[in-house]
Amino acid sequence: MRYPLLVFDWDGTIMDSIPRIIQVAQAAFEAVGFEPIGPERIRPFIGLNVFDFIDRLMPEFDKEAQKTFFLAYRELWRSERFAMAEPFEGVLQSLESLRQAGYRLAVATGKSRAGLDREMHYHQMGWLFEKTCCADETKAKPDPTMLWDVLRHCVVDAEASLVIGDSEFDIQMARNAGVHSVGVTTGCLSQSELSGLGANHVLESVNHLQAWLQDK
User: Fold this and answer.
1) Which residues in the chain belong to E strands, given as ranges?
2) Residue-wise pLDDT tens digits, 45-66
3) What is the sign, positive or negative, of the torsion defined by CA atoms of 120, 138, 190, 70?
4) Is 107 left (phi over 0), alpha (psi -120 to 50) or beta?
């Protein structure tokens, strides 16, 4: 087994949450009276922690305006106005199969601890992962500290680990940590974009990961 530890991103990799993130961001702009924005402006920054997400999304706004947007975004995200994100079809079964095959699973995400725990509890997925690390607990992607924290907790070397993610921040984090990565096209980027960023391989989804790993 070349990669006994698999470290997954959450949004856009395990969870079909990109549309929800875009909807909430657009609603937050509307709620605070800002000009509406299109999905193409939001999508490139999905995967960052919420503060970096807002900073890059709204560079022309001062800190007070950004704070106003953050409060609106957080309130809308926690509300029942938008349906809870669901795992991509078949992904839960794929993760269970990987566990049964002896792989150790972890999560490194730009979500907050509260946000990740809420979704993991709702979908009863916590038992799958040996370690989870969130952006409000350490330095955020693409800084490698989050990934190093996971490796240290699991006592696994970089060479024996694999990052699976959908965004440039996932691939950059892995490269910064000296860890191989597999990109998945279920989120923000295409196969060519993920390859261009340095992903060691690109798959259509997490559902194809186990078959690929069997050849390693």
Assistant:
1) 5-8, 104-109, 131-134, 161-165, 180-184, 201-203
2) 988 888 888 888 888 888 888 8
3) positive
4) beta
Tokens of residue 64, six digits: 């007070």
**Does residue 11 contact residue 47 with C-beta atoms inside 8 Å?**
yes
Q: Are 133 and 117 in contact (CB under 8 A)?
A: no
3-state SS of 141-188?
A: CCCCHHHHHHHHHHCCCHHHEEEEECCHHHHHHHHHHCCEEEEECCCC
Task: Map out the domains of the chain with their CATH numbers.
Answer: 5-16+90-213 (3.40.50.1000), 18-78 (1.10.150)
Dist CA 154 CA 151 (whole Å): 5
What pTM was estimated for this model as a whole? Answer: 0.92
Kindly state the tokens that stand for 101. Answer: 């095959």
Q: Summarize pLDDT for 75-101 with one digit per residue, the tens.
A: 998 887 887 889 999 999 999 999 999
